[in-house]
Structures are given as C-alpha cells and as structure tokens.
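User: I'm curious what two different proteins look like when written out as structure tokens. Can you demonstrate?

Assistant: Sure. I'll show them one after the other, since each token string lines up with its own sequence. Here's the first protein:
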Amino acid sequence: MHVPRAVAQHHEGDLAAEARGGHPGAHGDGGAGEPRQVLDAARAVAVRHRRGILVAALWAVNATGCVAYVPSSKLGPARQDAGWVAYLGNSHHDACAAESLVPDPRPLWRADVGRAVRGSPALGETVVAVGVAERVVTLLDRATGQALWRTRLHGTIHAGPLLEEERLYVATEAPEGRVYALRLRDGRTLWSTKTESVVAPLALEGDTIFAATERGTVLRLEAERGAVAWRRHLPGAVRAAPVATPFGLAVATAADTLYLLDKTSGEVRARLATPGTVLAAPALAESRLYFGTTGGHVLAVELPGLAVAWDHPAGDGVFGAVAVARDTVYALARDGALWLIPAAHPAGARAIALRIVATAGPTPLAAGVLVASVSGEVLLVDPGAGTIRWRVQLDGPIEQPPLVRDRQLVVVSGRGDIHAYR
C-alpha cells in the first residue's frame, strides 16, 4: 500500500502544492462553468473523504504494521540521560554486549522513514534517531515507531547522528558539507558549521566534536556553538569515524594509512601504513585499536606509537567495524566468516562460516552474536556451538549492524524501513 508522506516540521514545502505535483487539475473535455465547478468540488470532497478513510485505516493498523510519516505535531523528549555518543554506541562497539533477546523475537513495529536510511541509527532511552537519504533527520518513538519530528538539512546525509542529552549531532556531504547540532525536543537547528563533504560518522568527546571529510580534512569543533578550533589536512578521503583516545585522535584514510593526531593542536604524532583500506571506525580497548581492512586483515595496534601488536588474516575483506567484548575481537568478513579472536592470544582465533555476504560488522550480545547480510538476512549466532539460533529475512541490503537496547532489536533494512523486534 502506498502511503503519502507527511510534511516535515522544518523547511518543508506546501503540502497541497506537493500533492498536485505542481500541475493544474484536469477538467476533461467539457466546457468550464459553474456546473462543472460544482461537480469538481463534489469530486474533491469525495476524494478527501476517501483519503480520510485511508488515513484512519492506516492509523488503525496494529503495531506490527508499517508506520508512515506523520505531521510533526508531536515533540520528542527534552533529553536522554543515556545517549549514543559514538558510532555503534561507544568506542569498544560493545554497547549491546550486556543485552539479551528472547529465544524467538517477534515483530514489534516497522517504520518507513524514506527512500533509504543513511548510516547507523542512534538509540536513546526512548527514541531512535536516523538520517534519511532525502536530507532529513527523523526522530522516532522507540516503543511504537511513530515519527516525532523530521528536520530537513541542506545536504545529503551519509552517516547517522550521535545523541547526547539534549542534542543530536549530524554531518552532511555534497552539495554542502556541514556539521549540525539539533535540539532533541523538536529538531530545531541550534548551529551549523560549514566544512567539506563528510561521509564518516562524527566523534564526540566531552565538549568537543571531531569531523573528517572526503578531502581528508580533519576538524575539531566546539560542541556548544560549533566554532572550529583547528583543521588538519591528511592525504586520502576519510570514510571511517575518527576515534578519540586518551593518547590522541585516531584517523584512518582511504590512502591506507592510520594517523594519530594531537587532539589539542591537530599535529600528526604517529602514522601507520595499513594492509588495505579501513572503512569503519576502529574499536578502542585500553591502549589498543582493533580494526579490519578491505585487504582481508584484522589488526591490533598499540597506542600511542601505532606499533602492530598482531595482524590476523580474515580470508576476505572486512568492510564493517569490529567489536571488542569480553577480551574477544569479533570481526565479520565479506564472505560471511565470523571471526572470534582472543585479544591477548590471536593464535586461538576461530571462524564460523555463515555462508552470507556481509559488509556490516557483528554485534556481540550477552549470549550470542548478531550479524546481517547484504541480502537482508539477520542471524543470531551461538558462538560456542557455531549454530544459528534465530533468523529473519528482511529487504536487503543491510549495511549497518543490528542493534539491541533494553531487549529490543532494531534493524535498518535496505528500503528505508526500520524494524523493531522484541
């Protein structure tokens, strides 16, 4: 069923004009006059009546039905005490490691938010925030999937937002690269700072935001007002989120190089050539960074010198982020091999062949590992037995890891749908 999209709260055009598509109504081949106008008016009333019935029917659909855009008459919460302050929740990528799911999760809701969701969502205590291909940030109620507000930005969104207390932070790529701070309650723009095209997720540390652009420019911005403290140009585009560490800012570029920058000045402190491109944010655990490369390697790198502690072959390219939980490094190769590598003893690594094609990283849970494929499969894997406990088929591709918060599974699928299971 086609559902007309609703008007966003900010920067949206006239709904009536949009519904008309910018064209005058057709009057057939008869002459224009009062009887024809009356007939047209009656038909318009009938059409509006039928549309009203359609809208009412859609709102009556049960919770597992598709949630369409809604007029932005609702507001989000004023704040979320437990936010989503890094790509995948935290720097370890283990924000879901203490979470669990019931043996057979059932559909809770499905929300259609646009043509495609860009990047990973931010899961708050009661909300889900996503960037959408139509240059829109949407805030959803996490319990129901209902849209609370939509804000249109001036550029295309490639990476998902971050959520901290009363604000969302998000960046845009072409045609106008900017970093935005949005008010969580209503999506109002608090500030925006012009950068260059940003496709990598942002990094947030205290009162500081770090952004990196497709031209290789790394920026430090003040989170309160968006003022730029410094810019540093590096060779190669940046597609993975920068990682703020106690030793400096780690930035991986498409020139197959990992840099460590001084967070205060932006000066380069160390650099390391990588065996392939790093496309997803490295995971930080104590004084090490862990990441995969398109060349089929999983590496552990010591900070601050960027010395390689170990380099483990993955058999195929690793496009998604690795995760570190319970002293184990979890990595998912493109050919569907789920690698479990003991951080201190990589010789004990083992792989589970899942026979999928994957570009999203794995999500370790308290009892299992979630993975997703480009064809739309979501699997819950028993890492001990190497078996699949649960699976569901959605529209592909799934390009970001499934996420769990408060025993609720949230998956972004390939056609702008967000699915929730419990």
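Here's a second, unrelated protein for contrast:
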Amino acid sequence: MRNFKVSLLFILFTSASVLAQNDVFHQSPAIYGGWNCNVALDSLNKKSKGINNITAWVFGYTYGKKIQFKKGKSPASKTEYKDVLVPYLTEYCKKNRDSTFFHAMDSYVDFKLKQGEAVIGN
C-alpha cells in the first residue's frame, strides 16, 4: 500500500509540473478524463519521444480500475495501442462528439471485457 501511495504522489506531482508548463493546461481541465474526446485523441495521436501525458493517463486509468489484460492485449502493447486502442477511441469519439475521454475509455474497457481480453480483479 505504501508503494502505491508513493507512486501515486509521484505521478500527481510530475503530471502537475508538466501541465503547468503546457498551454493546454490553461485551455482544458487538468484532468484528462474530463477533456473532450477529440482533444484527448489529438494528444494520443501526436508523435513525441517517449510517453506523453495522455498515454500515462490511460495506463493510470486501467491500473486504477484494476483491469488485467491478457498478454499482448494491454494498451501498453505497441500493437494493441496502435491497432486497437487508438482506432477504437477514434471511432467512439466520431460517434460521440460531445463525450469525454473518460467515457471513451469506459467504452474501450467494456469492449475488452466483452471480448474476454481483460478482467477486473485484484
């Protein structure tokens, strides 16, 4: 439990420091899940070195929901990320223009659960 708290604090502080340096911080809610679906998708699709903030949010979201993916079916997998997650979220956001990124991720997780590629557990 202590390691989880330390990790959570680290993520919160590093995210806040990065956000404070970013113009998007001043234009949108600081919580990525509250962003409009399409704004979040733009960030997901940007080419950048390493992991971007929205991708880190995706990993934190799935971790926080205690979602366990089958091997190779996690958004952490490059193939899953590129071939499944981003296209799924893109399609969801096209159909639900006023939706938040949080709702899009809920839909993605429901899809993975129905496919039998993920479970919610400890």
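A detail about the second structure: Confidence is low (pLDDT under 50) at residues 17-30.
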